[in-house]
Amino acid sequence: MSADTTPEQGSTAPSRTRPPSGIRRHRWLLGPATLLLLVVLVRTFLVTPFGIPSGSMQDTLLVGDRILVSRLTAPADLQRGDIVVFDASQGFNLRVPERGLFQTLVEAAQSIFGKGQPTDYIKRIIGLPGDHVKCCAPDGRLEVNGVAVDEPYIAPGAVPSAMTFDVTVPPDRFWMMGDNRGASADSRAHLGDPGGGMVPGEDIIGKVWVRYWPLGRLGYVDQGQLASVPAAPVPRNGE
User: Fold this and answer.
1) Domain named Peptidase S26: which ranges (predicted)?
2) What is the pTM of this model?
3) CA 225 to centroid of chain Cα atoms
């Protein structure tokens, strides 16, 4: 008798397993879900769209401008003059509203198109960790580490600050100010709060990269670094 066997008459070869009908019906969702996942990953780790909601950064950024914020710059690599988006809830002692699951999902979808959270602020870094920032020098300019600084991004004739202050920025914190100094709720407005209005580096979402809307203002956003400022003094032992 042959070792080979033959299928019995009338038998059929087994058919390939098909996915359940429920999965087949929803297979069309795979493409949009994959695209959404890619967008979320890009937004979380590479670049984030952001819309300008107020005039606190005029005339550098106008209400309605749409920008891309790079998330690739570490806090240690930021410079004075960089424009950044940050979560101000801790640094500015803001109350974070409670949100349910539905509201969280809606806000996540809106964020893809540049709508930030109510606690997302955009300002310019004036003081790095360890800097001594003062308003004002005898000539009316801001003073950083003993040097009066030029600020070409402020509108002609505008004063650097109507509020006087004299602060030393703690380690891993940043002193933030808007370009429209008369209409910016920035670090100055929170001097009396816990933390003194200084923004933790871990709360910085990213550095402003380009403006993509309106098309007539398309291009890189000038950061205006304060290159003439000396480095912050190194604390002595015990200080």
Assistant:
1) 27-213
2) 0.77
3) 18
